[in-house]
Amino acid sequence: MNKKHLLNIFLLIIVAALATVIFNSDEKSSHELPRLSDTDISSIDDIVIRHNGNTTIIRRNDTGNWFVKQPIEIAANDFRISSILKLLNAPVHNRYPLAQIGMEKFLGEKSTTATDPDTGKKMTTGTSIQFNDQTVTFGITNPATSLRFVLLDDTVYTIEDFYAPLISSHFGTLVSLNLLPDDSHIKKLFLLNQTIDRDEKGRWRSSIDMDADTVSSALDAWSHAQAFGIHAYMQRTTDDTKTADRISIQLNEETIDFIVSDTDPWVILARPEIDLEYHLDKEAYDRLLSPQ
After folding, report:
1. Residue 20: is its pLDDT beyond 60?
2. Are 244 and 184 in contact (CB under 8 A)?
3. Are 257 and 191 contacting, i.e. CB atoms less than 8 angstroms apart?
4. Degrees (nearest 5) of the Cα angle 287, 289, 292?
5. Which residues contact 227 (CB under 8 A, 6 or more apart)?
6. d(CA 104, CA 138)
7. Is 122:142 a contact under the CB 8 Å cutoff?
8. What's the predicted TM-score (pTM) here?
9. SS3 101
10. pLDDT tens for residues 143-165?
11. Taking a C-beta distance cutoff of 8 angstroms, is the pair 284, 291 a contact?
């Protein structure tokens, strides 16, 4: 077989491969599910979640960072917020006019009655999330498909049930995992076994016999400390205000107090005043609470 025939066979193989790629691409495109909306999620600056009579407001600031503004003001978990924003472009399996289903059937047992602040009329409501001026309301799941019914404008859609658990959880699941605010500056640490602050020459020191490297490590650990989970505060018998172990982190901007609610099987640092508790690995005890 001469070189010309070999070249033709080679070109034929390439053309066939390209045709296969194009065909598969077109087939995939033709089977791609429509989206809940075509909203550009980068345009969203305000999120309002309403669930069980509670309202959580999350807002993006001028630097692009998300903050919970209600029920408390605290940095938000950017990863969780990004996950929630994807709801706007979620793949849709089916759609139905709301009039065909009816609001009470759509909500099922999740329905509650509220008063419209504008008209004063009673209305049936459910868990909802508002992105700027677009509101998505969550209904029941289809028991046959496990798909979630959601309402946008006057249309009911079915989507994968990824979003409802996150939106219907305690607001703590949307809070930043950082124990201290970003860019905060530690002024003084009141820990279980010592106090760490600066001497008259501005050098960091400990109230116990601890070398400079260990002091520096403790400060660095607190500056970057993160929980693996944040939950609603649950009072324990060890949280008695008079006998509970406490630590206090004095920053230039504010002072943050933690109750050491538990240390086994993991460390729990509670902030009852904001209804949050931070869960950390057990090793955090030596790293953050009692370094030596």
Report:
1. no
2. no
3. no
4. 60
5. 177, 179, 269, 278, 279, 280
6. 12
7. no
8. 0.81
9. helix
10. 999 999 999 999 999 999 999 99
11. no
